[in-house]
Amino acid sequence: MHETLSALVVHDIKNALALLEIDLEQLNHHKDVPPEGRRAYRRCIELKNRLISFLTLYKHDQSGLRPVIVEVDLAEFVEDMIRNSQSGMMVPSHQGHEIAVRIDHDKTKIDGANGGIGQFDENLVELALESALNNAVRYARHNVLVWFEQEQDALTFNVLDDGVGVGVVDELMQRKIAEKSSSTGLGLALCKAVAEAHGAGSVLLESVTGGGTLFSLVLRRIV
Amino acid sequence: MANPNVQGLSAGIRGKPFENEYVNFSRLTALVVDDISAMRHAIRSQLQSLGMNSVRMASNAEEALEQIKSTSFDLILCDYNLNKSSSGQHFLEYLRNENILSSTCIFVMLTAEAEYSSVANAVEFIPDDYLLKPCSESKLRSRLERLLDRRAFLMPVLNAINGKLYDLAVEECDKLLLIAQDDRRRMDVLRRKAEAQLALEDYTQILATYMLAASIRDDAPWVKMGMARVHYALGDYSQAIEIASQLIESNKNYVAAYELLAKIRRETEDDEGAFEMLNRSTAILPSAKRYRSVSQAAFLLGKLEEAKSSAEAAISLSNGSMVERSGDYLSLAQTLVDMGDFKAAIATLEKSARKHGDLGFFGVAKDAILAQAYFDAGDIAKAHKLVERSKSLLANRTNSFVMTALGKAALKTGDMVLGLKLMTQAVQSSGRDERRIARHVKKSMLDTGHNDRIEDVIDGGRKRILVLVDESTKLMRIARFVEANQKVLEALEIHNENFEALMTATQLHLLWLKHEGLNTVIIERAKFYLSTLDKLIPNNLKVMNFYRFFNEIVSK
């Protein structure tokens, strides 16, 4: 009974937040929106994202995520994700100026046999990558690059920023207890959950020579 | 800049702008279906700020249906959880089954959780896309642009399909296949091509289309399902069963595969097997229609408890919605009578009568089943009265289910002549449903203790017709036309659309005219038989020869 009740309340809050987000989104279409309006919109998005991430993780811990595998056109998927990230819902950068998010065409790889079509749960993977992207923008100096590499039996999504390096996040990866308390930690835990839900997937973080962090979400085809 | 690996990438990644010339939101009409008013309005404002001027709203499937019937929408955004009894998936199934949606309409399912699509992926009718709620405006925009772009590419084909010009649709598909830039587009086109070829019943060509699709992506469920269906249509059941079983192996929730297997098992007289398959598909995606099939199958197998609970489920799932069928109450009531629960049967019929009145087949069958129930309750006089009323309402209606119900009531109340006649007629006019009705009749005869007459009733009508036709033919050959006519009329009395009887009647009248000169009454009758045959079996060689013969005689 308690569980049912809390599930109902959470569902209700999620819906209410969604409606609030749409109201604020529409409000921000008007000219002369005060800075508070813009800030409220961003806060609302962040709050909703945090709630959804938390709920997803909760489900992962309780009963395991059940990914709904669909066919996804990888190029479209990455394009749309970047496009959505630039629509004003991004978290602000620590640098205080706009960060350019682009697709790295040269590093993008398509496997001939799979023809640029991936098979995964697009909503779960999008949720994971959005949080990685948010993180990258938060720590980047000027640029964030995104690309995917499709191989016969693995699919990797990469997010590369030109920020201070992996130190901060690396530490977070180790601290299991604290990991869900900050938004970065929550995001990483979420990415790991999503990777696990797709079978033998994994999340990698590494420092890049010359500064910056490379985030990789690796999905392996479950046979 | 060019990387050989990135040949297949879409326009955006190759550096072209995302916006494309096809998408002009201002000219599109959209319908938003959601039971929560705030959500409905929120989605409408999102669509409006994308530039759509014409956005309509509906709070449930019934309202939506009204609007869809009167307006041709470019886009329907429908919530998955419409209300307790019906989902967006049921609504979509209904729209596609009844052919209400235009081919050019984009149907997008909005859902709160992703769970839905593990079920939704398993069904035959999938929407053009699923969108997770809440959805930001920019995400909505990018999804809709992709969908509209895809639609624009397919437009010549979609328009042809909409106009039922399937030959043209196939032609347009072949043109598009030459210019399709990537596999996804090619698969889109092949899917439509198969759809058009299916409408043309061009099974050998359609198999080639599926083979081509399978060479591009061998694991697309619609390709496999399509192949299974074609093998089924070509009568190659073992191939169809093998492919459908493979589909189930890779996705144990694939409802359409279970339904095809159920069909095959029913046709190969494996009724238990069919029942099991129907049960499984219903457990995966319960709907009134599926419960209805389970209930019918269970009833004919004598599994009355299952028949009862499934009929009840069909009623409660469709109650008050557009998929409500008065026949569900009749099936439930007949099941209850057969279970000996006449009280519940009477209550069910009275409740349904308040709802569906007394009209048409429903009224006739309702009285017939009521008669059975009152007979069991010991009110013989009322039972007789109801049989009489039902009989008078039956008039010229020929509905096998109704005739079986009334036949059973007649047999129960002791009117053997009427009972046997109705049972025989029920089998005779059952058409494509023959096996099912024959089983229904057989069960009714067993229930009323007429085991010895079953064979007579099921085969006897036909045997009797053949005997009469034979006698008529013999009389006709010795030019005893009046007597021959009496025999053939007697045969047509049993079944007025029996081929052999109609052929004989035509031949008889033509000979009659030839031998005894032109007689307007005979000419009119000959014309009537000819046109009846022409309607029943168009372009039949024998009938055409009759026509030629008739014209020769009359023009003399």
Structural class of chain B: mainly alpha
Oligomer: heterodimer
Largest inter-chain contact set:
A-B, 40 and 43 residues
- What is the residue-mean pLDDT of chain A, rounded to a whole number? 81
Distance between the termini of chain B: 87 Å
Strand order of the largest sheet of chain B: 2-1-3-4-5
- Helix % of chain B is 55-70%
Strand content of chain B: under 5%
Biggest beta sheet summary of chain B:
5 strands, parallel
Main sheet: strands, sense, barrel of chain A: 5 strands, mixed
* Content of β-strand of chain A: 15-25%
| CA distance, first residue to last residue of chain A | 39 Å
Tell me the helix content of chain A: 40-55%
Task: List low-pLDDT spans of chain A.
Answer: 175-181
Which series of helices and strands of chain A comes N to C? Answer: HHEHEEHEEHHEE
Question: Stretches of chain B where pLDDT falls below 50 for ≥5 residues?
Answer: 1-21
Q: From the alpha carbons, calculate the radius of gyration of chain B and give it in angstroms.
A: 29 Å
In short:
The complex is a heterodimer of chains A (223) and B (556). Chain A is α+β, with helices and mostly antiparallel strands and 223 residues long.
Account of the protein in words:
Chain A has helices at residues 2-27, 35-62, 74-85, 122-139, 167-174, 183-197, and strands at residues 70-73, 100-103, 117-120, 143-150, 154-161, 202-207, 213-220. With 223 residues, chain A is an alpha+beta fold. Chain A is globular and about 45 Å long. The model of chain A is unreliable at 175-181 (pLDDT under 50). Chain B is built from 26 helices and 5 strands. In chain B, strands 2-1-3-4-5 form a 5-stranded parallel beta sheet, sandwiched between helices. In chain B, helix 9 (221-233) packs parallel to helix 11 (255-267) and helix 17 runs antiparallel to helix 18. Classes of the chains: A alpha+beta (223), B mainly alpha (556). Chain A binds chain B through residues 11, 14-15, 17-19, 21-23, 25-26, 29, 45, 48, 66, 68, 70-71, 73, 75-76, 78-80, 83-84, 87, 89, 103, 105-106, 108-110, 115-117, 121, 123-124, and chain B through 1, 3, 5-10, 12-15, 18, 36, 38-39, 42-43, 45-46, 49, 112, 114-115, 117-118, 121, 132-134, 136-139, 142-143, 146, 182-184, 216-217, 220.
